[in-house]
């Protein structure tokens, strides 16, 4: 019967060690998963910031194009006025040129505003991705801490179980009864002890 008890003890110890290993592996995996999620979100945030810069560049180009169109329209109005015999200082010609240039300036300003607004939205999205990444990493760290706590609890529980079963100063009870259960086992005349 002593072999059965020792086998159960080894099984308990092995089970405890395997559980601890499993919790350690899960903690490590949770931590790594959180870090990978943070890196992925940082990458997405960087992509959004790059898009914001591109949107600004496109809107600046669109504003330049609107100003160019305004200058061409003003130049055409002046050319048509000159061909008709009117002077450049004629009030109608001056009003047409001023109207064309102010319309072009308005369209250019609108293009810039539109680009800035879209870029702002992209930068806000980038900040949100950074926050999501930090939150994912923190969640991974918290999960890893939980697994480490479970590992510690398993160690304590396993140690208490083994101590309760095998610790505490050996078997209790009547030693005469024990020696009768296994004759000669605890005798000093037993060749194993002599």
Account of the protein in words:
- The chain has a domain at 25-153.
- It has helices spanning 2-84, 91-166, 175-181.
- The protein has three helices and no strands.
Give a brief description:
By secondary structure, the chain is mainly α. Helices cover 86% and strands 0% of the residues.
Which keywords apply here?
194 residues, mainly alpha, 3 helices, rod-shaped
Distance between the termini: 23 Å
Number of strands: 0
Shape: rod-shaped
What is the alpha-carbon Rg in Å?
42 Å
Q: What is the averaged pLDDT score? A: 79
Major sheet: none
What does the secondary structure layout of this molecule look like, with pairings?
Layout: H1 2-84, H2 91-166, H3 175-181
């Amino acid at each position: 019967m002593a072999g059965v008890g020792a086998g159960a003890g080894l099984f308990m110890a092995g089970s405890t060690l395997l559980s601890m290993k499993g919790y350690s592996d899960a903690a490590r995996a949770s931590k790594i998963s959180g870090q990978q999620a943070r890196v992925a979100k940082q990458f997405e945030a960087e992509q959004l910031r790059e898009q914001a810069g591109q949107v600004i560049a496109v809107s600046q180009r669109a504003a330049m194009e609107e100003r160019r169109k305004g200058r061409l329209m003003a130049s055409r109005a002046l050319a048509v006025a000159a061909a008709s015999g009117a002077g450049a200082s004629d009030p109608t010609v001056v009003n047409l040129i001023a109207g064309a240039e102010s319309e072009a300036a308005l369209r250019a300003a609108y293009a810039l505003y539109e680009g800035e607004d879209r870029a702002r939205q992209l930068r806000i999205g980038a900040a949100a991705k950074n926050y999501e990444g930090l939150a994912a990493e923190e969640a991974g760290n918290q999960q890893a801490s939980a697994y480490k706590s479970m590992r510690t609890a398993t160690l304590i529980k396993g140690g208490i179980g083994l101590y309760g079963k095998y610790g505490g100063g050996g078997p209790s009870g009547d030693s005469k009864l024990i020696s009768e259960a296994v004759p000669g086992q605890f005798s000093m005349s037993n060749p194993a002890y002599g």
